[in-house]
Specification:
Helices cover 10% and strands 35% of the residues. The chain is mainly beta. The longest helix has 18 residues.
């Protein structure tokens, strides 16, 4: 008979512990009991070691930041609820710092918000990016990725919101408005103004993961929300992964942004609203299995006009419902050098109302230098608003022969993967989590 040694006893207890842990489930999202201290539940209903409490110094943050602060890479910063950088205050985040949002929804959703007049100087680097993720992520100090979450894990915290004083086009021509994702009673959620050169700080080499917590019916927080952000702000090398709503959304403003990457978003990849008037260049949208549009672009909501520019953007589709782009509400802007591949056969570019079709015919919504793998002229489609009986509510100017002829020039040629001559410079994204996971 084999002796029962101390080592054997340890093995027995370890195995028993694994069995216990695998059956432990969170009482809010899974059936069962709450995990014991030192462990947390992930969205797959597994109890995992909370490496935060075991190996890192946790600094809890909640409420308002009223004086300049610096967050450093030797700590993990836990956001409980909304953390707001006040007007006149600068938050500096050093390279390699990890920020984790508490799980919660509604008014309890966690987020980092830079109010109008506040600044965020988050300057990571290619080898030490700043990581913003969920408390359920087992990533810890010195790492760039955990092991227990993937691109299917969405909505586990809120996201990053930056609000500025640059012009926007609002309904009723009001000067400011409440940002999507923040309840109206929270006045720190106002954005917009009259300063196109407004400066909200520097955001470089930042990876935002697993966000998009629900705050109400059909109302989630974007991975990165930019409301009225001015051209004095620097934004480049930003990645958003696995967000339950849009990846990055521009609500008006004039900020220029480059080297953006959105992967596995649930709704839209890059979203433009309220007469955003900056340039987005050298960027990528890579859809996940549940993604909707790669691009969604709306026009002004008030009398103030604005025109955006997209330059050198790569769009990667999916085999399910994902679409190339949806242009709506009399959008005005320039869409240049767009490379698209891996979209399903039913995917299309939508001109969603008569106003946006007129923008195209008037030459204020332009398309040039598109290259699409599997290109077919049928990708260009207009959806006509109809009444309850199915009758069109507007004249269908989309059928104007000028439109159909000009639409053929959107794409310069049909290409195969690897032979494209436009789109993003992929080497700029070697630092990303998406690249490490083979998404691009």
């Amino acid at each position: 008979m084999k002796k029962l040694t101390l080592t054997n006893l340890f093995s027995v207890f370890a195995v028993a512990g694994i069995v216990f842990l695998s059956s432990c489930k969170d009482d809010k999202t899974c059936v069962g009991v709450v995990c014991p201290d030192g462990f947390t539940v992930n969205d797959k209903c597994k109890c995992i070691k909370d490496t935060d409490t075991l190996s890192a110094n946790i600094v809890e943050k909640t409420g308002f930041i009223t004086a300049d602060e610096t967050w450093t890479a030797d700590n993990i910063y836990k956001l409980t609820g909304k953390v707001v950088v006040n007007d006149g205050v600068t938050l500096t985040i050093k390279p390699g710092t990890i920020i984790k949002g508490q799980v919660g929804s509604g008014t309890l959703a966690s987020a980092l918000l830079i109010a109008r007049g506040g600044k965020l100087n988050a300057t990571g680097s290619a080898d030490k990016p700043i990581i913003m993720t969920s408390i359920n992520d087992n990533i810890t100090v010195g790492q760039t990725a955990g092991t227990n979450l993937d691109e299917a894990d969405t909505g586990l915290w809120g996201g990053l919101l930056i609000l500025g004083k640059a012009p926007c086009s609002f309904e009723g021509d009001v000067e400011s408005f409440q940002i999507e994702g923040i309840p109206p009673e929270d006045d720190f959620g106002l954005y917009g103004g009259t300063d196109p050169n407004d400066n909200s700080g520097i955001i470089q080499y930042v990876s935002i993961r697993h966000g998009g917590a629900i705050i109400g019916a059909n109302n989630e927080i974007n991975g990165l929300t930019l409301g009225g952000v001015g051209s004095g702000t620097t934004i480049d090398h930003v990645e958003v992964v696995a967000n339950a709503d849009d990846g990055i959304e521009f609500f008006g403003g004039t900020v220029n942004a480059s080297e953006l990457l959105v992967w596995a978003h649930k709704d839209d990849g890059l979203d433009i609203d309220q007469a955003y008037s900056g340039t987005i260049s050298n960027s990528i949208v890579a859809q996940g299995n549940d993604s909707d549009h790669a691009l969604e672009i709306d026009g002004p909501e008030g009398s103030a006009s604005g025109s955006y520019t997209l330059n050198n953007v790569t769009l990667k589709g999916n085999a399910n419902k994902g679409e190339y782009a949806d242009y709506r509400k009399a959008a005005t802007g320039n869409n240049n050098n767009i490379f698209a591949y891996d979209f399903n056969n039913d995917a299309d570019v939508e001109l969603d109302n008569n106003g946006v079709a007129q923008s195209f015919l008037d030459g204020v919504l332009t398309f040039s230098g598109w290259e699409i793998v599997g290109y077919d002229h049928n990708i260009f489609k207009e959806k006509v608003k109809k009444d309850d009986e199915g009758n069109p509510l507007e004249q269908v100017i989309i059928l104007d022969p000028n439109f159909t002829e000009r639409a053929k020039t959107w794409t310069t040629k049909k290409v195969s993967i690897g032979n494209q001559t436009i789109g993003a410079n992929m080497q700029e994204f070697d630092w990303t989590y998406a690249k490490a996971k083979g998404a691009i």
